[in-house]
Amino acid sequence: MPTLAAILPAERNNFGLIRLLAASSVVISHAYIIVRGDGAVEPLEALTGISLGQHAVNVFFFTSGLLVAASLARSRSIGDFALARFLRICPGLMVCLAVCAFVVGPLATTLAPARYLTDGAVYLWLLVTGSLLHITMALPGVFEHAPYPDVVDLPLWTLKYEIACYVLLGLAGVTGLVRRGARFWAIYAGLVVVYAATLVFPELTFGIVAVQHMLHLAVLFGLGVAAYRLREGLPLSWFWLAVCLAIYAAAYSGPLRPLATALLTGYATLILAALPLGALAHPFRCIDLSYGIYIYGWPTQQLIIDKLPGSSIAEVAIIALAIAGCLAFLSWTFVEKPMLAFRHKPLPSVRRLAAAIGRTAGTGAMAHLGKPGASGSS
């Protein structure tokens, strides 16, 4: 019965493949609403209450909590950790937004190319969408008549919650909350209780969707952090997976099903990560296409349905996965991987800034997480 610690080294796990499958699942799930419009029932939605894409997002946030906790443990300072998080998310995102604005936009807009490119709304879209505060702003004349109109890149909605989780984890590291085991577990238990209370009494969130999303995704991210803390003694066995499944079955008809889903998703992800898949998983330990497929999948699908109206769900999904996969490979090769390497040899000014932030916040504050065993693109 291996423990989580035994599979954390990159060459011993399948996290890269799992994240690739999760990103692909988001594309497949979104093909339904891309073709049929908002309100279309996506895969697994009728059976589990959430779509295949939402299950995939759950997997992303759990694995992110686990791998980013390992990244925090590896970091020399909080400045180094912050730089790593910035380089993982922002460069790839900025290039994707530029592709959407200056490649997808001109191909899909109903305006003349010159008029489109000189429209100030294009550059405002870059600013507003890049801030991640409002990701449903439309580009001028782009996807106006699509079944799911106007929205250029819907999956970006999760990124602000991902970044919020990074910030919270960084603060926990700086203040010593992660180091003090009892406090960490008390705070995480409190978060779970609050989330459970909002599931039983939805009026507690006052109908604010952002609060609902933040609680749900923070619980999943925190579950990944908790798994990393328990890595030395966390067994990975089919017995405990069956226990998680039984808990899910017991909660299936009640308001706490999302909480049981989070537990089952997290543990099932660890079991899948431990399977001896050999050569099948090996390429994705070196190449991470998940982020690229996730952020390029939606605009690719929107462009397909714009240029090939009447395409079936399967056609949109298959073509989009092929194109988004190519774009993801280019993004990883020429943007994401080089920028991640830049973390280890930044410009002197950036290095000095990171060191200054680290001294201010407490250099070495992350050492309490223990000797890291995980590696990878996170």
TrEMBL record:
Any one of the GO BP annotations: polysaccharide biosynthetic process
Domain of life: Bacteria
Keyword Phosphoprotein: no
Keywords attached to this entry: Membrane, Transmembrane, Transmembrane helix
Chain segments annotated as transmembrane: 17-35, 55-74, 86-108, 120-139, 159-178, 184-201, 208-228, 234-252, 259-281, 316-335
InterPro entries referenced in this protein's UniProt entry, alphabetically: Acyltransferase_3
Cellular-component GO terms for this entry: membrane
PANTHER family per the UniProt record, alphabetical: ACETYLTRANSFERASE, BLR2367 PROTEIN
Name of this protein: Peptidoglycan/LPS O-acetylase OafA/YrhL
Natural source organism: Tepidamorphus gemmatus
Classification lineage: Bacteria, Pseudomonadati, Pseudomonadota, Alphaproteobacteria, Hyphomicrobiales
